[in-house]
Amino acid sequence: HYFIQSNLRGIMTRSPADENTKLTSDIAQTPPQDEEEMEEVDMEDAIERAGCGMGTLLYSAGAVLFFCLEGAEVVMLTVVAPMLRCEWNLSSFPYAVLLMSTLLSMMISSGATSTFGDRFGRKPISVISGLGVSVGGVLSAFAKTYWQFLLLRIIIGFFMGMGTGPAVALSGEVAPKKLRAAALAVLPIPWGLGVSIGAGIAYAVIDPYGWQGLILAISLVFSPCVIFFCIVRESPRYDYHYRQDVKSAEETVNRLIKLNGNGIPEIRLSRGEVVDSDQEIIDCKMVWNTLKQTDNVKNAVIILSLSFFAVFNYYLYAYITPRFLNEGYCTGETVSVKESCTYDKDVLFDLAVVSLAGPIGSILSLVFQHYFGRRKVFIGYATGASLVSLTLYFCVNYTYLFAFLVVMRSTLDGTCMGHNILMPEYMPTVIRSFMISMVAVFARLGGVIASFTSEYIYQDHPRLAIAIIQAFAVVCIGCLVMLKKETMGANLQ
Predict the structure, then answer these.
(1) How large is the angle between the packed helices 146-172 and 429-460, nearest 10 degrees?
(2) What kind and span of H or E run contains 269?
(3) How confident is the model over 118-133, as a mean pLDDT?
(4) DSSP labels for 200-248?
(5) Burial class of residue 6 in the structure, from the number of CB atoms within 10 Å of its CB (0-12 exposed, 13-18 middle, 19+ buried)
(6) I want to staple 427 with a disulfide (CB 3.0 to 4.6 A). Which of 91, 207, 435, 457 is the partner?
(7) How many beta carbons lie within 10 A of that of residue 40, not counting itself?
(8) Counting Cβ atoms within 10 Å, is residue 48 exposed (0-12), middle (13-18) or buried (19+)?
(9) Nearest-CA neighbor of 434 among 304, 275, 239?
């Protein structure tokens, strides 16, 4: 366009009296041909053409850090809670309430704010949530009493629960179908990585700076998630389907194309493919009708059940692991929970190493899924968790215990990936953010119950905790077996 236009101007300058001047002048003023004939595509095709690259990574970065922070919170409470118990002289009940406070708040928030991402947009809710979690974390490091600390943990849980669905939707909706599952599957890996990083920070910080330094360090390390949420634009799918702002969605897709560096020309979105839906009303009736129309009622129930039992296992394991390492479970040299105010640095180091098995197991799960599909891999991981839990009954020394915890962590992480991948792949765009939030509600309900009961289960019946993990792993296998259809993402891969 610029080459032709500049040459036409040159012709006009050199030959002002030429009889073709008017003709060339008209041609020079004609709008660029590539703009007139730019191909129109629908939203799904536009995302497919944009592909993956730096733009997709920018959208995922905020959600990744957000999930890392959530994972680090588990380790933080595991390490800090015994110290607070001694410092504030807490009995078993307020101690158990402290352990479950953040998760309980996250669960309630996930349900109460489940439509916020669909009503107000993925980006603004993600930004507000990231700010709330970061500021709340910094303030909780300066809490002086049990009630101050508990209130701040509840506030942090509220913002975490509110931001999970929109953050996942924001990152997943800019990925093409073939790689959307992989993009969403990456998010649970940072959750496990956050646990490892949190344990590493605890190992480095807890001695010189105490529990206040640990909380402050974890909050500051993962606070840049807010920056990434602010940098990216709103999800183009949201603009297109909910706000019906085709121009904004078109600009976002073209920016995504440039950032991904695929070398394809800019596109125009079809004006005739916008979904005409009442975007202001996203209630249970609308969700139920959508599930029925897409034949996803059974899938939704199964995946919600899977999320409860898988995450219950995960949190029960997370809270008993440092106690197993610290209190000589296999050797019988147990230390009273009330007498153990802090964890030895060697135990924190071992905890960080054990935690690394989680993201490694999740990465291997992605590799296996490429060859064997989603269901078979998740069934294999759940079966592994059930079988490995049996071996703890024959535990004889610390080395055996350490190996058991490493393998168990890997299998539990792989099982927990199931609901995080399956729900977004099965659900249509219109209710995807809502159903992701519902998965978070059921998952955190399992985490809340596990967090509260872990104090009583471990203190009185340590072996009962292992039996529960084994039984619930079997339930997870049953849920996965009932999902008879493979997801579209797996079939495309």
Answers:
(1) 140
(2) strand 268-269
(3) 88
(4) HHHHHHHHHHHHHHHHHHHHHHHTTHHHHHHHSPPPHHHHHHTS--HHH
(5) exposed
(6) 435
(7) 14
(8) middle
(9) 304
| Cα distance between residue 130 and residue 223, in whole Å | 7
Q: CA 299, 420, 115, 99 torsion: positive or negative?
A: positive
Q: What is the pLDDT of residues 214-256, one digit of tens each?
A: 999 998 888 888 888 888 888 888 888 777 788 888 888 888 8
Q: Is 296 in a helix, a strand, or coil?
A: coil
Tell me, what amino acid is at 300? Answer: A
Q: Tokens at residue 137, please?
A: 């974390």
| Side chain identity at residue 347, one-letter code | V
Residue matched to tokens 């001047």: 21
Residue 220's identity, in one-letter code, is L
Q: Is 89 left (phi over 0), alpha (psi -120 to 50) or beta?
A: left
Percent of all residues in the chain with a pLDDT value above 90, rounded to a whole number: 10
Chain centroid, CA 23 distance in Å: 60
CA distance 50 to 266: 9
Tell me which residue of 443, 195, 433, 218 sits closest to 312, measured CA to CA. Answer: 443
What local confidence, expressed as pLDDT, does residue 487 receive? Answer: 67
Q: Span 458-483, mean pLDDT?
A: 83
pLDDT bracket for residue 19 (50, 70, 90): very low
Share the mean pLDDT of the chain: 78
Query: What whole-number distance in Å separates Cα of residue 34 and Cα of residue 37?
Result: 5
Amino acid at site 322: P
More reliable by pLDDT, 402 or 184: 402
Match 């519902």 to its residue by tokens.
438
| Crossing angle for the helix pair 462-482 and 398-426, to the nearest 10 degrees | 30
Sign of the alpha-carbon torsion through 225, 231, 235, 239: positive
Q: At what angle do helices 188-222 and 54-87 cross, to 10 degrees?
A: 70
Is residue 435 within 8 Å of residue 294, measured between CB atoms? no
C-alpha atoms less than 13 angstroms from C-alpha of 46 in its C-beta half-sphere? 30
pLDDT in tens, 423-435: 877 887 677 767 8
Q: Tell me the pLDDT band of 261, cut-offs 50, 70 and 90.
A: confident
Length of the chain: 493
Tokens standing for residue 179: 């790689």
Return the amino acid letter for 202: A
- Report the number of secondary-structure helices (H) and strands (E) in the chain: 22, 2
Residue 475 amino acid letter: V
pLDDT at residue 381 in the model:
92
- Say which residue the tokens 């159903």 belong to: 435
pLDDT in tens, 46-71: 888 888 788 888 888 888 888 888 88
Could you tell me the two tokens for 97? Answer: 């309430």
